[in-house]
């Protein structure tokens, strides 16, 4: 990339990968870049209105949405056609002592998990059509860090200590089988009926984990399918044309 960053977020839209925000080692960043696999180059795009780290990112209706982050309740959308960021309605609950948000899209609605004061995670949904937030339920006994994704009408929270899922039709969290490894600082993506987990370190140590794990949504089973050629921590992955892009 044009600039080094970690604790950033990444997503793909219309065949292009976007890497947004994060830290450069000293400062929180508002800058953003995009990667076009045709040109095989990273290009700077307009910066966000707010710097942020450890925030949620997703796409809906041709726009990139960034949500929350470390002590940040602001929401923005990016339009690639105009190269402009637009402020959206803030998350309804302020982020005072919290630091980690994740976002995904299911049935034309953006879902986010935000930390609550009692140690659980609150599930909210944001309807971009009426630009309103709606509070759903809480995910108790939450993992410290997690990745958040959706398949059909089911939301998945893949955490460093446990994994859970929620069917939005019944709005109830249920436990699911945990990864074969205990790792943090990993990235996770969903491709087809599979969730892939990449990178990270072994919990409570500096031991790198290069194995790639895959969760079969249909049979509720984790398997090791490959290994990374690099050691990586606190990066982000995106699915692009059936392949992964990791940064």
TrEMBL record:
Matches recorded under SUPFAM superfamilies: Galactose oxidase, central domain
Keyword presence, Repeat: yes
Residue runs in coiled coils: none
Superkingdom field: Eukaryota
Keywords, comma-separated and alphabetical: Kelch repeat, Repeat
Keyword Repeat: yes
Name the record gives this protein: Kelch-like protein diablo
Species this chain originates from: Glossina fuscipes
């Amino acid at each position: 990339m044009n600039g080094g960053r970690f604790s950033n977020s990444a997503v793909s839209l219309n065949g292009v990968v976007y890497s947004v925000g994060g830290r450069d080692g000293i400062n929180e960043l508002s800058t953003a870049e995009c990667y076009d696999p045709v040109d095989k180059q990273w290009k700077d795009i307009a910066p966000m209105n707010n710097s942020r780290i450890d925030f949620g990112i997703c796409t809906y209706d041709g726009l990139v949405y960034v949500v929350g982050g470390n002590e940040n309740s602001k929401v923005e959308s990016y339009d690639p056609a105009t190269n402009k960021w637009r402020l959206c309605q803030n998350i309804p609950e302020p982020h005072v002592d919290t630091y980690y948000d994740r976002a995904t899209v299911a049935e034309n609605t953006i879902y986010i998990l935000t930390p609550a004061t009692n140690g659980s995670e609150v599930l909210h949904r944001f309807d971009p059509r009426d630009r309103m937030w709606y509070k759903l339920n809480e995910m108790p006994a939450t993992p410290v860090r997690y990745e958040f994704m959706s398949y059909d009408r089911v939301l998945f929270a893949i955490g460093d200590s446990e994994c859970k899922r929620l069917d939005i039709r019944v709005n109830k969290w249920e436990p699911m089988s945990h990864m074969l490894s205990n790792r943090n600082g990993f990235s996770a993506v969903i491709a087809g009926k599979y969730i892939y987990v990449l990178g990270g370190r072994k919990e409570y140590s500096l031991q790198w984990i290069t194995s790639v794990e895959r969760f079969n949504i249909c049979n509720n089973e984790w398997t090791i399918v490959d290994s990374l050629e690099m050691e990586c921590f606190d990066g982000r992955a995106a699915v692009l044309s059936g392949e992964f892009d990791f940064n």
